[in-house]
Design goal:
4 copies of one chain form a homotetramer. Chain A has 336 residues and is α/β, with parallel strands linked by helices. Chain A is built from 12 helices and 15 strands. Chain A has 2 domains: 116 residues, NAD(P)-binding Rossmann-like Domain (Rossmann fold, 3-Layer(aba) Sandwich), CATH 3.40.50; 173 residues, 2-Layer Sandwich (Dihydrodipicolinate Reductase, domain 2). Chain A has a 7-stranded mixed beta sheet, with helices on one face. In chain A, strands 3-2-1-4-5-6 form a 6-stranded parallel beta sheet, with helices on both faces. A two-stranded antiparallel ribbon of chain A has the order 13-14. The interface between A and D is large, with 38 and 38 residues. Chains A, B, C, D: Belongs to the Gfo/Idh/MocA family.
């Protein structure tokens, strides 16, 4: 039985709490820490039978009974808390992105060196049933050599301009999942990035120095070409699709909906919209990533998403930004 | 917090145990009873934090702390145990069918008379996301007046001839869900039943006096016509679809699959098979029916599937059998 | 080059005229006859380069240059004109139904006896790309032994009560295509018919002594069960689907639409309605049946739909009517 | 009745011949010319009732009875023959591309200046039912302002290296259709082109100086971003899809198949592959473009695809080539 402490009881911290309590049979959550802990949150946490609720995450790091820590705090604290946790000998599950700053990710990597610490980054989409099915087909050679990867990733609603200002920009906040997905789907690194982008959804996003619409072309190390298209707002909800085309065929996924029901009437033949909210769409993937992390801890196995994966996605994001600024393709080797 | 006792720790008893522990926040399972309780089962039950595990279900009935009982024992004991539980003042969730014998169901109805006892029958498919979507569309008038109801229900594998011999026959064992579905989808009773059936899957089923393939036509009280098609074996897995056609349109559902992935290659364009096993296909519906039962108990509200629903489905099943025997349409009014 | 005369220049006669002129390279239409020939129709016919346009179909029967005749006149004249044409040594393509009266069809059969005359009945749906794909899969054994056949056939608009009065009833007018389809899809005859029907679309149809909604169960000679569902009015257009389920799998078709375009917006994910009108939906099948008829004539081969097919579909229709009248399953052997 | 002469009796010339003879009621083909005319081709042409068959296209240009000319000869002769035809006062339908050389297209434009000559370029895909449905939805504002355009265009088989050497390269030979499609779907010009490409299908294509796989990003004048993905070989056949995403929704098309039949068995749920060959896939569009050209001639209306459309697609193709050579985004304004 793996004993877990959760640092950060915001939306994603709560998701992981639920996942462990409801789905993961070989772990329990002993302590949840959050500096802004309030009564409502505490009540929610306690309803899952969690013993300790605190404002100070050091209670977790100092608790010798706790094996593993979930870092679900604000992005700027991911790296320093991870480093503290590693120093305390805890296995770490760190939410994405590890940091916006490549240097800080490298410090985490350094902290991990020579340690028998498990470190997993929260790229939950790798554990989604649809994307897993693509990955499996590619891995089994069912599409032959991959030639073209296409990822569509569109949010149902843009974030507030306020959020945008502190988000690190669309590429590090939103597209980062897609960068990781490109690497995951074909098991290859990215060599070059070109971005064509625009502000078409909300001028306030542009005023905050960001973009809201983009076509991103990646050249992969294995020779495949990848294209990601992003929008901060899809009127029909959360659009999350992918396709890998190769020498022997193509594997593609569609969106998930709440039901398969289709209404045929004088207006047309109408199915349900995609699941609207990322928590609906990806709930099962959050549970599965947690189960995989706990298994890696318990069985002393490799985590399925490691710190290098965390680093590479950020490097691609930084290259994407540079491509926008300099209006040219940017080699990943230009980014340290 | 509703305290629950589970009588019967077979496959379906375990499903309800998991549902309550993982999804239903306003209930706990205090005791599980099964005459064949063994170590493995006890270990499984205890891993959910259940206090009492016993071979004698009277421990549950005699426990004044327990509010509600789930009757998950063998079919022939559903009615007598339900009656005992009602006498003990427990709310009852009874697995389907309440009994093969209409007389015994009427005894349960009598036991309920004048009591403030909640009674729910385990027609879980009413809580399935796809069938709920049809029901909602029909109820909201989106297809106008219902004219034609079509239900496809095909199992992935036939039961053993042994099982068949004690199952009450395909209509009471398998089609009973579809009879309830017909009533549920359009909110109307059945008036007449005609069956055309055959033994096409396994001669042993015929030798056991049952059929394995059937087309069943129902005339509904609201004037709609319904057709159910059944097979005990679909090579591609569990086939569970429905369609309601009305004056303003049609609402139809497809099967659920594990993912939306589609492989295009030289052989064709291939998607995944339907979810194969009823527990995969209907897991979410089992959780939801349990949540609804607990809510009905806690809020003193009507249960969504009551003893009359349990009775009617069996009456239709008995009429179906009679239609096969007498090779003619049978009015439901002929069946008491 | 097969020389063709067309008797009857109504809607279906014009369809065949176009098919032969535009698609069938080994035939020409020499003469078109219609007692109600008017200027507009004549102009239309001449625009295809047809030499002779007449009111008297005997000009066709007496023309030694004409090899084959298309009987596209009113239903009550199909049999007598066919018999005249056979006597004149012409090959005959006869629109469906050959007659409502089984006796008259038998007279046609008698006229054909011992003659080297090709006779084809206009069950065009056998030549539809979708239904051909089902038939091919069944024939190739890709679904194993057929167990269940399902045919959905719903019209976009009900006929006028006037039309209904002279139509021979829904089973001989509309379902007759589906009866033929059942036989075609699995290559087997029908043994028993049971109908559950209703008047749900238009009371005037009921007043004219007909039904507008039906579920028809057929028992096939090969042991398979078949169900046809009919409605005289589908709000979303012409609904023409079929499914054959067997020991090794299922083959099913969906409706055709004008395009594959799907609109996703805040209201849902909406595709186009099925092609609305039977001429849109089945145009290609009309062309193909004509090409097959001409080929059979030219190559002295069997026609793909013969007079027995014409007879059997009518017998099933008559049995269906009897089933409604007598509220019981009717064996086909009861119908001569 | 428009009298037509066809110059070039290769594959595409024959397609147009058939289209006019079978579908276009207000035109006839009087003469077909081809320098390589042989008996077989002549027989084919004469079977459509064409009067004159010749090796010398001047017979067409000098025939005062002929109103319109279809230029279906080899690409290098499109421009000069068009210019001759214009000088002879003939309306011109010119196959794509007008020329690989922008200068020559400008000479055609000059020849047209001040003349009442109709000139249409053979971008047949604009007349495809699926792409027309997208265009209509965009035009009617059903997806709001267009933000992202996605075009997938993959051939079933690569051309021979020999063909590649004289094709003008993939962008002018194959992608040119997609460039026109991008402009057509949203009714906007292209401002900038960036290409990421590779040789993944056949090294011989690379040795011939061309690419066989590409991701092409376009910036449109209306602010939308477009991405085209191309491959010279899709194992599952001809892949022709498009999607336009906008402020209010998305409209997308799938491939056409020969039937809607889907086989469900132990291996999965398998539909048919896309129509394999461009003539199958686009036959209806070829007929429609011809009908539109003839209508424009007959009614003295604008042609739906004019010489500017022909010019722009080539300019984008030239920019695409430059982008590959110079590994940078290329503004269309750089290309004259």
């Amino acid at each position: 039985m793996v004993k877990v402490g959760i640092i950060g009881a915001g939306r994603i911290g709560k998701v992981h709490l639920q996942s462990i309590c409801n789905y993961v049979r070989n772990a329990t959550v002993k302590t949840v820490a959050d500096p802004y802990m309030n009564e409502e949150t505490e009540g929610f946490i306690r309803s899952f039978g969690v013993e300790n609720v605190t404002k100070d995450y050091h209670e977790i790091l100092n608790d010798p009974e706790i094996d593993a820590v979930l870092v679900c705090s604000s992005t700027d604290t991911h790296a320093p808390i991870s480093i503290e946790a590693i120093a305390a000998g805890k296995h770490v599950f760190c939410e994405k992105p590890v940091d916006h700053d490549i240097e800080k990710i490298k410090q985490v990597m350094k902290a991990l060196e020579g340690k028998k610490i498990k470190f997993q980054v929260g790229f939950n989409r790798r554990f989604d049933h649809n994307f897993e099915a693509i990955r499996a087909a590619v891995k089994e050679g069912r599409i032959g050599q991959p030639h073209i990867i296409k990822i569509t990733s569109r949010d149902p609603e843009p974030p507030s301009a306020d959020y945008v200002a502190h988000s690190g920009g669309m590429f590090l906040d939103m597209t980062i999942h897609d960068f990781d997905m490109a690497r995951y789907l074909v098991g290859s690194d990215v060599e070059e990035v070109y971005v064509q982008s625009a502000v078409l959804v909300d001028p306030a996003i542009g005023e905050a120095g960001d973009v809201d619409t983009a076509i991103i072309t990646l050249k992969m190390a294995n020779g495949a070409l990848c294209v990601i298209d992003n929008s901060r707002r899809a009127a029909y909800g959360y659009d999350q699709r992918a396709e890998v085309f190769g020498s022997e065929g193509m594997i593609a996924t569609a969106n998930d909906a709440n039901s398969t029901a289709v209404l045929s009437n004088a207006q047309g033949v109408t199915g349900e919209k995609p699941l609207y909210f990322f928590l609906e769409r990806y709930m099962q993937s959050f549970a599965k990533e947690m189960a995989c992390f706990i298994d890696a801890v318990e069985q002393d196995a490799e985590t399925p998403v490691d710190v290098i994966d965390g680093l590479q996605a950020v490097r691609i994001g930084v290259a994407a930004k540079k491509s926008v600024d300099e209006k040219r393709p940017v080699a990943l080797s230009e980014i340290d």
